[in-house]
Amino acid sequence: MVSKFDRRGASRMRAQRGRSRRIFERVLNSLLRLSLLAGAGHAAAETAGDDWRPSLAVSLKAQQQRAEAIITSTLNVDVVSPRNPTPIALDADEHDDYFTVIVPIELQLQTPAFNLPIADLSTRAFVQAAYQWVPITDRDFLTEGKFVPLPPNPTAASEGLGGEVRVDLQHQWSLSAGLAFAVEIEGIPIEIRPSLDYVGQWVRADARAIGVQDVTNQLFSLEDDKSKAVHLFGPRLAVETDAGRWGPTRLTVFAEGAVYFSRAFGSQRLRGSDSDGGETMSFSYEPDSLLFQIGVGTRIYWDPQ
Length: 305
What we know:
Blueprint: H1 4-48, E1 53-81, E2 84-110, E3 114-116, E4 119-133, E5 138-145, E6 162-185, E7 188-212, E8 219-246, E9 249-261, E10 270-276, E11 279-302
Antiparallel strand pairs: 1-2, 1-11, 2-4, 3-4, 4-6, 5-6, 6-7, 7-8, 8-9, 9-11, 10-11
């Protein structure tokens, strides 16, 4: 026979088991909810960088490159001195800096973000193409003599004789491939972009020589022009930071510098010549192997996130 005390004890044990089961179920449900939220947050963090980023940029850069121009001719363009009327044929060269300002217009595409094994940094690969507009394209690179109106019967001692080489940087373009590293400095998001670039230039050189023939003093004008694609290759480094957002677009500003080399592509020399009546003129123009660029710009990303 079961006593009243035993029945009450069994009821309490069943009630305790029920409460324990309900508490366990509540804890389990809470843990499941937390794990689901954590998983969703981790997935959102992973997919936040899982987007392709196209962008358009405009910048202003200073560009410097040394070059050498040479012009020679059998034509006489000067005399030794006023007291010594021995004629001197044209023979001049110039080694100088070719400085210009360029305005690159760039299209860039960045891949989704990933982490490099060697560094725990959010990294994107990118490719870029640019047309680098040159507002002022031509300049007198070499001038020998004074091109003033000639007298009726010029001699080697007359002003107005000489030679010149004009250089016209008509077009410039570039292709780039590199990596973009996202870091924070003092809470400011910074993107550091090293890349390797190819730069192409379409260069035209015009030369002319005005002089007189030996003995006869007959006046001649000889001229020629040559065009050539000049190729360069080298590293570039850009540092960029956010400047604001407008709807699905993000605005940034950046500064960058680059140095390019041309020796890997062989000789970049332009050569030309002209002849008439037994008189000849020849010229050459060759950029040096180094080209430097430095500048600032702004970029617009299509970045809805």
